[in-house]
């Protein structure tokens, strides 16, 4: 009883779509995806800028 069934999830999604509309949800998805992409890119750039001796120490 405490868990979520598929019906609870479907009802929740229907309510969210009715409240926000599909266009707002699409824009929100694009914004979140762009933020995640930028975050991953910045992490990769930071790892490239680390000196070699710090990379070796982090493996220990």
UniProtKB/TrEMBL annotation:
Protein name: Sec-independent protein translocase protein TatA
Gene Ontology MF annotations: protein transmembrane transporter activity
Originating organism: Acinetobacter puyangensis
Membrane topology designation: Single-pass membrane protein
Family: Belongs to the TatA/E family.
GO cellular component terms, A-Z: TAT protein transport complex
Localization in the cell: Cell membrane
Function recorded in the entry: Part of the twin-arginine translocation (Tat) system that transports large folded proteins containing a characteristic twin-arginine motif in their signal peptide across membranes. TatA could form the protein-conducting channel of the Tat system.
InterPro entries in UniProt: TatA/B/E (IPR003369), TatA/E (IPR006312)
Database matches in HAMAP family: TatA_E
SUBUNIT field: The Tat system comprises two distinct complexes: a TatABC complex, containing multiple copies of TatA, TatB and TatC subunits, and a separate TatA complex, containing only TatA subunits. Substrates initially bind to the TatABC complex, which probably triggers association of the separate TatA complex to form the active translocon.
